[in-house]
Amino acid sequence: MNRYIIRFSKEGYIKYTSHLDMLRLFKRAFKRSRILLEHSQGFNPHPKMGFAQPLSLGYTSKCELLEFETTKDFDPAEIKERLAGVMPEGVELLDCRKLESPVKSLASAVTEAEYEVVFPIPSNREKYAELIKSYLDQEQIIAEKRQKKTKKIVSVDIKGKIREMAVAAGDKLTLHMKLDSGSNSNLSPEQVIASFLTYTGLDVKRYDVEVERTKINFDSKLQF
User: Fold this and answer.
1) 32: three-class secondary structure by DSSP
2) For residue range 170-220, what is the model confidence (pLDDT) as tens digits?
3) 9 bridge partner residues
4) Which helix (H) or strand (E) holds 120?
């Protein structure tokens, strides 16, 4: 099996390209690079390609991971070189390697993701460290979530899904968050941001908050 992983960053205006459009972008890039992908079987075959974890629209990232299979064996360096020549501005290929792990898919092995969330206000590490401790010490941390089936907005307790939260270095208030991510348990940074702003009473508009994913972690020894 010729199975590979590409790690890439997503910066600038490309952050407004959706998950599905990013799949289409890479599909076209493989075609232009003359790298033939394996396809699934059945009436509607599709390329064996997928992201470890979808990235929300408007987020930047330093650690996006694309898993794919090719019809023949390639040197990972050659794959990276070919694709790099057709990538749009904002997408930088950082690494390519063969996936030798027996995991069914990267997506099935994801357990958590790390983010840097930047608020448009001056940083005061001591002050906000105390606020974060107070926020995390709540018996429950209530956030709103839209149910997939009914589309209703419900209140949920997200406290158990926040693994870490701390003030990071920076001139602006920057929070480092490590949150549950994956098929077993998943927490969107949006829920944490909304509940944190409500709790602290910070006068900040959501569209002024910047979010970057910095790492994806797995339940195995996989590290990228």
Assistant:
1) helix
2) 899 999 999 999 989 999 999 999 999 999 999 999 999 999 999 999 986
3) 92
4) strand 110-122
* Alpha carbons within 13 A on the beta-carbon side of 127: 8
Strand 172-180, strand 210-218: pairing = unpaired
* Separation between Cα atoms, residue 84 and residue 82, nearest integer Å: 6
> What's the CA dihedral at 91, 113, 219, 2 to 10 degrees?
-10
Q: Are strands 3-10 and 60-69 parallel, antiparallel or unpaired?
A: antiparallel
pLDDT digits (tens, 9 = 90+) for 8-63: 999 999 999 999 999 999 999 999 999 999 998 888 889 999 999 999 999 999 99
CB 177 within 8 A of CB 192: yes
Instruction: Please say whether the beta carbons of 217 and 182 come within 8 A.
Output: no
pTM above 0.85, yes or no: yes
